[in-house]
Amino acid sequence: MIRDPAIHIRKSDLLRICQEEGITFPDDFVANLLLKASKIKLNGRVIITAKAKTARKAARTAATSDNVVAQFNSIYMGTLRNHDKRPTPIHKGTKQYLALKEVATAAHNFQKDYKIKSTIEAFKIYVGLGVVLIGAGKITIYRMKGADYKIRDQYESLEILKLVDPLQTQIAYSAWSRSLKNFHNLSMEVNTSQLADIARASHEAKKSNADINDWMDAQFDKWTFMNSMPEFSQLHGDNAKLAHTRYMASKGQEYDNAGEQQHFETVKNEKKIPIKGEKRQRSQN
Question: Does residue 267 surpass a pLDDT of 80?
Answer without folding.
Answer: no
